[in-house]
């Protein structure tokens, strides 16, 4: 099978956006093979025809999760392919209950900056994760398609995080789980993301939905509003959230996406 894809760097979270048609049941397998072919890649999304005619495209992530960085990447691909330098587009995205609005502009060929109106969290609560006889209680932010636990730097070692993340994902019956190591004093976020369908755990260069989870949690603590600009391993992301009536009312994320090239791969 000949696969055409664009390799994009959205704040260090290297993403492959596939524009070849790949049947949904084959996407997890193809994604795993593409990530072997492109060792820098942290995730893969597939462009499909949208069901909603108001949307420019559908983005189906490799594990059915939602990803803000991949959404920015898909918007970059679509806007540059149709010659649109700036504006708003709607994208259907896996894990998002409604079309996602992306506002952005092409600064120069291959460099895109945008703002994603993120899906709102379904809940924010304390969750007790089990590891044998040990119990680790962490704030858990549930989004459609992915959950994120907020971890203080001294709560878990990297080695333990890698060991337990798959079991914890299954414990909460999530399609994907992120462990977001958040250092408030340094405004730093180190994300580890596990996708159940592919069995992959990746220390990501940046995580858009994880950044959105952190700002949602902070907005809940504040009771009204929070904003962050977080230094992540390979880039920076900004997010803002408003909170009232016991829930997050608005949530947005801003970042950049740099096209590294368009490629083809022969995948069997």
Kindly list the characteristics that best describe this protein.
globular, 8-stranded mixed β-barrel, 6-stranded mixed β-sheet, 268 residues, 4 helices, alpha+beta
Task: Tell me what the structure shows.
The protein is of the alpha+beta class and 268 residues long. It is built from 4 helices and 16 strands. The protein has helices at residues 27-37, 68-81, 158-171, 208-222, and strands at 2-9, 15-18, 43-48, 57-61, 86-93, 100-108, 111-117, 123-131, 134-143, 146-151, 176-183, 188-195, 200-203, 225-232, 235-244, 247-266. The chain has an 8-stranded mixed β-barrel. α3 links the parallel β10 and β11. The longest helix is centred in the C-terminal third of the chain and has 15 residues, at 208-222. The protein is globular and about 50 Å long. The mean pLDDT is 94.
Provide the fold topology:
Blueprint: E1 2-9, E2 15-18, H1 27-37, E3 43-48, E4 57-61, H2 68-81, E5 86-93, E6 100-108, E7 111-117, E8 123-131, E9 134-143, E10 146-151, H3 158-171, E11 176-183, E12 188-195, E13 200-203, H4 208-222, E14 225-232, E15 235-244, E16 247-266
Parallel strand pairs: 2-3, 4-5, 10-11
Antiparallel strand pairs: 1-2, 1-16, 3-4, 5-6, 6-7, 7-16, 8-9, 9-10, 11-12, 12-13, 14-15, 15-16
Quick overview of this protein structure:
This protein is α+β, with helices and mostly antiparallel strands.
Q: Kindly estimate the percentage of residues that lie in beta strands according to DSSP.
A: over 45%
Count up the helices.
4
Distance between the termini: 6 Å
Apparent shape = globular
What does the average pLDDT come to? 94
**Category from helices, strands and their pairing:** alpha+beta
The radius of gyration computed from the alpha-carbon positions, rounded to a whole number of angstroms, is 17 Å
Specify the oligomeric state: single chain
Q: What's the helical proportion of residues?
A: 10-25%
In spatial order, strands of the major sheet run: 1-2-3-4-5-6-7-16
Main β-sheet, in a few words? 8 strands, mixed, barrel
* Structure summary, number of beta strands: 16
Order of helices and strands: EEHEEHEEEEEEHEEEHEEE
Low-confidence runs (pLDDT<50, min 5 residues)? Answer: none
